[in-house]
Amino acid sequence: MPKNKKRNAPHRGGGGGGGSGAATSAATTGGPHRTVQPFSDEDASIETMSHCSGYSDPSSFAEDGPEVLDEEGTQEDLEYKLKGLIDLTLDKSAKTRQAALEGVKNALSSKVLYEFVLERRMTLTDSIERCLKKGKSDEQRAAAALASVLCIQLGPGLESEEILKTLGPILKKIICDGTASIQARQTCATCFGVCCFIATDDITELYSTLECLESIFTKSYLKEKDTNVPCSTPNTVLHISSLLAWTLLLTICPISEVKKKLELHFHKLPSLLSCDDVNMRIAAGESLALLFELARGMESDFFYEDMDSLTQMLRALATDGNKHRAKVDKRKQRSVFRDVLRAVEERDFPTETVKFGPERMYIDSWVKKHTYDTFKEALGSGMQYHLQTNEFLRNVFELGPPVMLDAATLKTMKIPRFERHLYNSAAFKARTKARSKCRDKRADVGEFF
């Protein structure tokens, strides 16, 4: 054999002698071994991604949940891809690490893999810790989002407690760091609330987390001498996430602590209803409705001194018609504040039904709604699958043990994508036709008068 061919031939045992990790990967996968030129760490990472594109592409884990396995292979294939993604969370390239973090997060959001995650808990925690400490905004966000899903997978217990002990101080530091990215601080605030809700077993740690989140969102409160309307700032999105995370943790606090927080915030929180950011107004309104629910749960004859001024403000928001506000924002705001007003005035909650598989869950309180919304934000479209199979979430929503279904039943329950498309198209046409008829009737009445 000529010397040049012999030198370029891949070794049987894996990597070629010497050279970069990318060359080793190429030899291992059976790809052609080309002459290696000097290149940077960034190039090395890109080369690694070219051989592991199935791992590093988050889109390889579609958000359709368990359908991923039916379409792309077996459980072993999924775990094999996940192992590759977990390895890439330690890559030298920030883009590769971020893509790997998002890929793992998408996979764990769409599938319950408790045993797999349990075995690799320390590796995942170390990767998240490094990315939070050394990464920039997008990477920190991806790491924090993965931490939330990791705790949801494991549920309450020693494993989640250790994750919180490791990541809690880092999350708190980022949240309170004024020089850090607002988007990263926002995601870390949500993550801190979710992980603490799941894992904390130390009451002092719970109180410490509440104080940390309070120190953030209370900056949006009106000062005593300030009569101006609270204006939104770049920090408003952070304040919203901190308020919602704080409200979530308040639902698991002892009654004595809840009373203290109610006394402290009940008269200051309504000032956020005047903020010019629609999302802040909605977050404040829903938080107030939940606080009223908690207060009346502790004292059935609970009395709020400024009830008249509060209901007047809520009614104005529920019927808001200001022209300088976007139509979409006004529609969303009016819908939410109609429900908030009913909760404050009439102690009523409009029950919502969530369907997943053959089961149904009724959301009949603000506490349950806020908890559901929080976990849905973390899991995305994987929420329904987790409600079916995740024991922790089923315990949170009192759904009992998972319902066991055989493969044949599951197959009959699935509607092919093409059929779903036809069904949705027909429904859209029917709605359009009904609206057209309704508009025609209104036009006729207008002409008559």
UniProtKB/TrEMBL annotation:
Residues 22-31 have a biased composition (Low complexity). GO terms for biological process: adipose tissue development; fat cell differentiation; muscle cell differentiation; negative regulation of axon extension; negative regulation of collateral sprouting; regulation of transcription by RNA polymerase II; skeletal muscle tissue regeneration; striated muscle tissue development. The keyword Cytoplasm does not apply. Residues 48-345 form the Interferon-related developmental regulator N-terminal domain. Keywords: Developmental protein, Differentiation. It comes from the Eukaryota. Residues 12-21 have a biased composition (Gly residues). Residues 390-443 form the Interferon-related developmental regulator C-terminal domain. Residues 1-10 have a biased composition (Basic residues). Residues 1-41 are annotated as: Disordered. GO terms for cellular component: nucleus; sarcoplasm. Interacts with PSIP1/LEDGF. Belongs to the IFRD family. This is Interferon-related developmental regulator 1. It comes from Rattus norvegicus (Rat).
